[in-house]
Specification:
Blueprint (H helix, E strand, L loop, with lengths): L5 E4 L21 E5 L2 H5 L5 H20 L4 E4 L10 H12 L3 E5 L4 H8 L5 E4 L8 H8 L7 H12 L40 H13 L16 H22 L16 H6 L4 H13 L5 H25 L18 H4 L5 H13 L4 H14 L4 H11 L5 H12 L16 H7 L20 H12 L1 H4 L6 H9 L2 H19 L5
Parallel strand pairs: 1-2, 1-4, 2-3, 4-5
Helix pairs in contact: 2-7, 6-11, 8-11, 10-11, 11-16, 13-14, 14-18, 15-16, 18-21
The structure holds iron/sulfur cluster (SF4).
The site of iron/sulfur cluster (SF4) has 14 residues, from helix 13, helix 17 and helix 18.
């Protein structure tokens, strides 16, 4: 075999034609390597649909690169020579091809990047320029700050990208953030668009069969696989959202409704996170939709903020503070994750809906993740590492750089408030306001201490009581503690007892 000059390893979440490490490859002398490995598919029990998405998208991407003239080597999971790990395959192929140089774009997972750095090969690392803010740029912005705030970072990114800015650098509409307009519940008369569908081609069908056979023990169904696996299909999903979803996304992005898993959400996060869509193009399309008058400013700004604000911000935090960030446990939580997170077997309608659709579609939208499953984990004092593993495993779009800060920092406040200024804790009243779940729940959202009282209610007060030492000094928690302090002592005691009995039931392995 002729000697190869450059060997470029492309990971399963790096399926972008303009990936930095692909630029400058000589299509004659250089090689591209893609590998399906058991270690990445099973270091947590990833949802089978997520494994299928990544493998199928990788196979389609490899074919597209070949069609463009690249010399590509592809290792399937069932290849008898497959060593099972990314570093193992990289070493094997470097030796086989006698490659002089190995090139790689920064990973999305600290664990994997570290294992590659430790594998004994000198690697030429390329910054991942698919993001707006580089790791170094974020580090410089965060330097000297005790606490970070997304809002200030987001303004920097607006200035940098010049999205939704007036000529003088001020924000369009006179404010940077229109989040207050994005919190409407869904009226009965408003119908969400039926989501776009995709047909599985021969490559995807082959992958689905492989995943079904090899990952039968992982939680989640393969039956409803309906995700784009090529750049063209991802564009089609995006175009569908621009036409049918975006206008309603602003108003109803926090709303939840029974048996409506997607509402006005784009469902593009998985495609974006594996490289099938381009961040800058998405933002530019949304801005154009605003200037063309087809969507309101709160919809455009809210969407752009998710992408260049929150998404870039959590990535920055991740790379700034790994690996110690993963150890955060400010409340000292140790409770085991209840079994019903893996089955949906609970009487709580909101949890059953959020978990059920997560098992069925590997998807739940951000408020279901933050204010239902996340809120419950926070109030119930679940071990941060266990709930982080659940989110990483169950969601199609969950990669460590985005999942860990979102779950450990935002959901669990386990970083002590570094990433978010207060815990997102709420009683059942919030869920009742933003959804129709409570109408036919086995529990009553109006009750607080009765046997049929909504578990979120007593757990909310129990959470505030047991963490008063850490949270009473937080100005943003002032109103909550004022409400607690105004309650008669007997009421506080009854709430504590009800909350404790619910926690005891969880400790006995019972469902709620
Ligand atoms: Fe969820 Fe409580 Fe409402 Fe039931 S009553 S759906 S448990 S918030």
């Amino acid at each position: 075999m002729n000697k190869t000059h450059r060997l470029c390893l492309v990971l399963g979440d790096q399926l972008s034609f303009d990936l930095a490490s692909l630029a400058g490859l000589d299509r004659e002398q250089d090689r591209v390597l893609l590998v399906e490995v058991m270690e990445e598919a099973s270091h947590v029990a990833h949802h089978p649909q997520k494994i299928a998405l990544i493998f199928s998208a990788m196979r389609h991407f490899a074919q597209a690169l070949k069609d463009q003239g690249f010399r590509v080597h592809y290792v399937t999971l069932d290849d008898p020579h497959n060593s099972g790990s990314v570093p193992g395959e990289l070493k094997r192929w470097q030796a086989l091809l006698q490659a002089k140089e190995v090139h790689l774009t920064e990973c999305g997972d600290w664990r994997l990047e570290q294992s590659l750095k430790d594998c004994g090969l000198p690697i030429h690392w390329h910054a991942d320029n698919r993001f707006l803010c580089s790791r170094d740029e974020f580090r410089a912005w965060a330097a000297g700050k005790k606490q970070l705030r997304m809002e200030f970072f987001y303004r920097e990114m607006r200035r940098k990208s010049r999205l939704l800015l007036n000529g003088d650098g001020t924000p369009v509409g006179g404010a940077w953030n229109f989040d207050a307009d994005n919190r409407k519940a869904l009226p009965k008369t408003v119908k969400a668009p039926y989501p776009a569908g995709f047909t599985n081609d021969a490559i995807t069908l082959e992958v689905l069969a492989l995943v079904k056979e090899r990952f039968a023990s992982h939680y989640g169904s393969l039956d409803d696989f309906n995700y784009p696996v090529t750049h063209a299909d991802a564009q089609a999903l995006w175009a569908y959202f621009l036409d049918y979803g975006l206008a309603g996304f602003g108003d109803y992005q926090d709303a939840m409704a029974s048996n409506e898993p997607f509402l006005f959400h784009a469902r593009i996060s998985a495609a974006l996170n594996i490289g099938l869509l381009d961040l800058r193009q998405l933002c530019s399309d949304v801005e154009s939709a605003y200037w063309s008058g087809s969507i309101a400013l709160n919809a455009a700004e809210g969407f752009i903020r998710q992408l260049i604000g929150w998404r870039e911000y959590v990535r920055g935090v991740y790379w700034l503070h790994m690996p110690e960030y993963a150890e955060g446990n400010a409340f000292g939580n140790t409770r085991r994750l209840p079994e019903f997170y893996w089955t949906g077997d609970t009487q709580m309608k909101c949890m059953r809906q959020a978990i059920g659709q997560s098992l069925k579609h590997a998807y739940a939208h951000h408020i279901q993740r933050l204010m239902v499953t996340g809120n419950f984990a926070l109030l119930a004092g679940i071990s941060p590492s266990q709930i982080c593993e659940w989110y990483l495993a169950i969601y199609m779009d969950a990669f460590d750089w985005v999942e860990l800060p979102n779950t450990l920092g935002m959901v669990m406040h386990a970083d002590g408030g570094y990433l978010g200024s207060k815990p997102y804790c709420a009683s059942g009243q919030y869920i009742n306001r933003m959804s129709d779940y409570c109408r036919d729940c086995a529990y009553s959202v109006r009750e607080t201490t009765a046997d049929n009282a909504c578990p979120f209610n007593a757990l909310y007060w129990h959470f505030l009581m047991r963490h008063g030492d850490l949270l009473r000094g937080n100005q943003r928690m002032g109103m909550m503690y004022k409400n607690l302090d105004r309650m008669p002592l007997e009421k506080q005691q009854a709430l504590w007892q009800r909350g404790q009995s619910l926690l005891d039931r969880l400790d006995r392995g019972e469902s709620l």
